[in-house]
Records
---
Amino acid sequence: MKRGIVVVQQHGTSVYEHLGQDIAQLIVGRSPHIGRVRQMVQQVAQYPRATVLLQGESGTGKEVVAHAIHTCSNRAARNFVGINCAALPETLIETELFGVESGAFTDAKTSREGHILRADGGTLFLDEIGEMPLTMQAKLLRFLETHRFHRVGGIRELHVDVRIIAASNVALRQAISLKTFREDLYYRLNVVTIQLPPLRERLEDIELLVEHYLHKHAEEGGVQEVQVSAEAMELLTRYQWPGNVRELFAALQSSIILCECNVIMPYDLPVHIRTYQENEMQQLLTLCQQLHLPSEGFDMCALLDDIEKRFVREALEQCNGNQVRAAALLGLSRDQLRYRISE
C-alpha cells in the first residue's frame, strides 16, 4: 500500500472473490513457513474482534495476509479499509482516521466521516504502524480500548464494531526501546502476531508465485497466459530477492512486456537477476534455508556428525594437512579441530 488511504474492499465484494475462499489460493506457497502463516490466518479469522499484528520485511505480503484474514472471517461482506500511516503527514492522519465535524477548522465546511467509521462492521488495516506519530499513537490506544471516538471538532461519541489489523516492517520492540513507539499500544496490538518470512527463506515457493502472477495477469487482461522457460525459472529461484514478493512481481511484469512468443527467457529478466551470482557461502546458506524436518523424523546427531566430518576432511585436503590453516577455515581453534579429528 503506497498511497495514503485505500479502500480495498467495498460492501459485499471481495478482491479475492474470483479465487473463492480457499486459503491456499489467498496465500500462495507450499513451504512450511507459509503453511504456518495459513494456519494462523484460519485460526484468527474465527475471532472477528481479535487484533492482529503482522510483522515482516517490506514486500513480504502483509496486506495480502490482512485481506485473507478479512475474507475468511464473518466480516467479509463488509468494508476492508486500508491506511498507510507512513504516507500521511501528522496534520492529516487524525482527521483521516476519525473524521471531522463541519466548522472544526477553516477548510472543514462539511462534516466528513473518517476511515474508522467507513470500516464499521469490517476491518481497518493500519499499514506501517511503526511510522505513526506518538501523539496519534495515544489517541489510537484510547480508541482500541473502547472502540469509541469523537470526530475532530465533534462532541458526539461514536461507536464502531471493527477489527484492527496493524502491520510493520520495523521491529516494534526495538522502536519501543528507542522511544518511538508506545509500549502500551504495542501490547494492545499484539494480541496475535503473524511473522511473515522473507522470500529468500522460502525459495521453494517461487514457482507457485510465478504461476499465480502469470495466471492472474492473463485473467485480468484477457490475454494468453505467458510461460517461463526452465532456464529463466532457474535464475528466478537462485536470486535472493531483497525486495521479496513485491520485487518478484515487478520483475515478472517487466519480463512479460519484453518477452516474445509468450515465453519469458533469461534475457527477458532484469539484468541484476540474470547476472546474479551467489558466492559459495551464500549457496550454503540457501541450501540450509531449504532444509526442513522430514515428516517421519530423522537421526539428527548422525546427520550433523556426517556433515562435520565432511567439512573437516575437505578443510584438511584444501590446506594440505595444515591443521592451523584448516582450523581457521572452519572457524575453530587448533585444539577444537584436533578433538574432532580424534573422534
---
Amino acid sequence: MFMKKAALTTGIAAAFMLASTGGASAFTACQVTDVGGIDDSGFNETAWKGVQDSMKAYGIEGRYLESQSETDYEPNLNALLDAKCDIIISVGFLMADATATSAGANPDAKYSIVDMAYNPTIPNVLGQVYATNEAAFMAGYISAAMSQTGIVGTFGGINIPPVTAFMDGFYYGIAYHNSQKGTNVQLLGWNPESKEGLFTGNFESLDDGRAFAQNLYDEGADIVMPVAGPVGLGSAALATELGPDALKIVGVDADMEVKDTNNPGVYLTSVLKRMDSTVMQVIKQAMDGTFEGGMIVGTLGNDGVGIAPYHTFDSAVPAALKAEVDAIRAGIIAGSINVGG
C-alpha cells in the first residue's frame, strides 16, 4: 500500500496542501509538533517515529505540521481538523490549552497529547504521560557513582512538570547513591523541594545549552543532564571540545549517543521516554474502535521509560555498578525503592 507523509507549513497554504494530498489509506494519523521541530532529536522526533512505525505496521498515512511558535498551535490543529485526520496528536505540555479548546469544540474528533493528562478527563482526548523520574533516578545514581569531582549538574528548558520530572528523579537518584554509599555527591541546578533551578527559558538555543553547561562545569560539575530538547546539543558540543574525561552528558528523551552524530562519545547514558511506543498504542486504539479519553502512563514496568546503553563508556562502568542499577530498576518496579526521596 502506498504511504506518504506530508511536512507542511502553517496557514491557508497548509490547509490547502493537506486537503489536496491524496493517498490510498483510509486512516490518517496527524501530528502537531511543539516549537522544537520534527527533527529535534528529542520528543517531537520520537513521537513522529511512532506515527512512522504505525504507517509501516498498519498501512496508514501520516502527516505533521511544525509549530514555529506557540501562536501556531491553534491554527495547526484547525488545519488538521479541516483535513479530516482520524487522530490528531499534539506534542508537548505547552499545547495543553490549545488541544483542550480544540477538542472541546470538536467532540467527534479524536485527539491525543504527549506529556499531558487532563483532570477531569476530556472524553475525546487520550493523554500520554511518562514516569521519567523513575528512569532519571537510575541515571542520577549512575552519575553519582561515575563523577570524579563529586559534583553533578542539570538544567531545564522551561520550569514545567514534564521537564522537572527528569530533574526530580535525577536528584533523588543521586541522594539514594549518597545514602547507600556514604558519599556526598552534590547536584547543581535543581532543588525539588523549592522547585527552583536553572532554566534557559527555551527549547531551541544551542548557545544557551553551551553556556549553561559551561557555567555548571566551571562550578565543578563533570556530568551534566540538560532537559531542554535541542538546547542540550550545545552542552554536548562543549563536552566534545573539553573531552569526556572533563565533561560527560546525560541525554534525555531518546538515545542521544545514537541521535547526536556530531558529538559521539560524550553521552554517559540517556533517560529514554518512549513516546514512539505510546503513540503507536494510541493510533491502534483509534483504528480498532477502543479509543477513549483518559491517559496512558509509560513506566519502567511497561518499558515506557528506561535508560540507554552506556555505549562508549560501557567498559568504564564497573560490573558491580551495572548490577546495582539493574537491582534498582527491579526495586522501582516492585515498589521497594521510592523514587521521590
---
Amino acid sequence: MITRELIKTIIGEAINAPSGDNSQPWRFEFRENGVDLYNIERDQTIFNFRRRGDYVAHGALLENIDIIAGHYGFMANSKLFPSGEVGAIAEILFAKDDAPDEELYQAIGKRVTNRKPYSGEMLAAEVKNALLEIGNANELVRLAIVERGEAFDGIVRAASLNDRLILENETIRKFLFSIIRWTEDEERATPGMHVKTLELGAPQQKMFRLFRKRSIARLASLIGFPLVMQKEAAALYGTSGAMLVLSIKGEAPADFIAGGRIFERVWLKATAMGLSLQPLAAMPYLAQRIKAGDRDNVSEVQARDILKAEQDIRDAAHMETGTILMLARIGKGEAPTQKAFKLAPEIHEKMSV
C-alpha cells in the first residue's frame, strides 16, 4: 500500500518532464494505490499536430514516474487509455519493488533545456554508446546520432528553418509570442516559456520585443531579416557536439508515448553525463501536418521548404521509414541562465460517474 503523501511526492518530482513550449499538459486524479493521468489541452499550436507533442510529454512524465517510484521502493504499472474517456492518458498503480535507478533519478531534477552555445566538442565513443543503448532499447523506437560533417550541416540548416519562419509565417509568429512569458509572475500564472530561457543577448531581446508587432515583423521580413535569423540559428546549432534523431515505427498515440519515454531516458542519461540538450522538433511536426494534407496557414513555398527540411533530417540520420519523433542538439555547454518554471501538479479526488 502506498500513501497519498508519497504519491504526491512522486508526482511533484516527476513533473520536471519536457513538454511542448513548457505547456505541462497534465492533471491527476487519485485512485486506490495510484493515480489516473489526464491530458490538459494547453498546447493549441500549429506544431502540436493531433496532440502528438502532448503524447510525447506524457511519455516523458510516465518515465519519470517509473524512475522516481523506484527510488522510493515502488514500481509504477501504467495502463494506457484505460477507459476511452476523453483526455484519459493512463491509469498508474504502484506496487512494492526494489530496483531503483539512482543515476537517472538524480538527473531528473537537473534536466533542463539549454539554448546556449555549446563547446563544439564531439561526443566520446563511450557517451555515444551509452545513449544509443538506451535510445534503441525498444524495437519500435530508433535513435541515430549524427556527428559533425556534411550530414550534420544538413540537419543544422533544416532545424534553423523554423527561426526563419517566425517572421515569414504569421501563425507561427503569433503562436511564439502567445507562449512567451516576460516576467516571473506571468510564468507562474500560466505555463509558457520565460524570455530568459531563450538565451537572447540584450540587443537581440530588444529586437525580439519589437517583433511582437505585426507591422514591424512584416517590415523585417521584407528586408530579409528572416534569413539573418536563420543564419544566426544555424551558427548556434553548429556549436553542438552532435544531433540526435529519434523515430518511431507507428503513428498511434501509444507510439508517441513510448517514444517520449525513450527520449526522456536519453535526455536523463545525457544529463547524468554532464551534457546539455535542446529539442528542435518544429520541422518534423510541421512536416507531419503537411503530409496529412493540412496546409492551413502555410504557403506552398513554406510547405515545400518544410518537407525538404524533414527529408534532409531523414537523409542525414538514414531514416527512410518511420515517423520522426524528435530532433535535438547535444553537447557540452555552460549552465542555462534560467530554468522553466513548473506549476504544482493538480491532483484531485476521483470524479464520480
